[in-house]
Amino acid sequence: MGLVEYGIAKEKSDIRVHVGFESEWVAIFETEKARKAIKEYDPYVAPTYVAGTKTAEGWLVKPEQIEGCKKFRAPDVAKRFGFDKAGKSTSKKGQCAVEVVRHIVESGKFPYDVVAFEETPQLEYQYKGIDGIMTTKSGKKLYVEIKADGRACQPNLYIQRSEKNVNKQY
């Protein structure tokens, strides 16, 4: 079974958040502007391996190449949100990243005038690349994709383009 197209090319999100649990950086940007940066800069495609098997590929995109990307330090994010206990489970790391986003919204520091966040664990949303729905001050709904991106912003974001999800974890 080979890799299948998955990730930013297929997802229906408006906003992406990459939580760097190793780098202690968070990047927030509009999905469409990241797609535009990928087309414009044609970044390097890096493979990801698990136990010697290629499981994914993603573009290595510098946050500065994405128009309007907001990045900031997130000290102690691994310990404060449980990444240090998640082990190798991508599902557990993803849930930790969701909690980081929830914290940013609840502390009033999420850009785009976001005032509320609702997680969407249902598979119908997950298949579309939507981890949550955000509400702005004006009442507008924004779909958000949240990624646990270990070394985010140091110096690149890993923006997935394909994967082999043998365990069907979302």
Measured on Cα atoms, how large is the radius of gyration? 15 Å
Mean pLDDT: 91
SSE sequence, one letter per element:
EEEHEEEHHEHEEE
Total domain count: 1
Beta-strand residue fraction = 25-35%
Major pleated sheet:
6 strands, mixed
Number of helices: 4
Summary?
This protein has helices spanning 31-41, 77-80, 90-106, 123-126; strands at residues 4-5, 15-20, 25-30, 45-50, 53-61, 70-73, 114-119, 132-136, 141-148, 157-163. The protein is an alpha+beta fold. The strands form two sheets. It has a six-stranded mixed beta sheet with strand order 6-3-2-9-8-7. A four-stranded antiparallel beta sheet has the order 1-10-5-4.
Summarize the topology.
Elements: E1 4-5, E2 15-20, E3 25-30, H1 31-41, E4 45-50, E5 53-61, E6 70-73, H2 77-80, H3 90-106, E7 114-119, H4 123-126, E8 132-136, E9 141-148, E10 157-163
Parallel strand pairs: 2-9
Antiparallel strand pairs: 1-10, 2-3, 3-6, 4-5, 5-10, 7-8, 8-9
Q: Can you give keywords for this protein?
A:
170 residues; alpha+beta; six-stranded mixed β-sheet; four-stranded antiparallel β-sheet; 4 helices; 21% helix; globular
